[in-house]
Amino acid sequence: MGVNLGKGQRISLDKSGGDRLTAVRMGLGWRAARRKGFLAKLAGPREIDLDASALLFAGGQLADVVFFQHLVSEDGSVRHLGDNLTGGSGAGGDDEVVLVDLARVPARIDQIVFTVNSFTGQTFAEVEDAFCRLVDENTGQEIARHTLSGGGPHTAQIMAKLHRADGGWQLQALGEPAAGRTFEDLLPAVAAHL
Question: Per-residue pLDDT for 85 more than 60?
Fold first, then answer.
């Protein structure tokens, strides 16, 4: 189990032996909050479509984006494994995955911001067990986890960012509530974290 990151915390992605991570997986998991009351049980579980996106920045300018309609970055270093329209069972598995080959990310890309938005428009008050996590893609070891807790009236979160520092990469948990159904809606809020 990796480090459980609180909002704003940072960790280096250098390994203990001095090696650097070369490939990471950012996983997003969630499930719809259980409905309450007799009629809610008859209606069954609601479906909530959360979407993970990776926004690649160069010098504060959006250079590329990877999301459910554009699954691979122009340079091939970042890949989205596909859209999940309903979320999981709450068992802790990743419902959407973005792979980042850190060794292939072009030098001009200095930040990769991960966002999640409710494409179907439900608020995070209607979502349970939401998290993002960073995994060493080569070993499968979880490096860090950030719980997207607190519910609330917002429809999006600016989850975390990878950024270049001291010749390597660092992860910073952001967990910043935002409003929007798509990554485009989130760009003004993301700008504050660059």
Answer: no
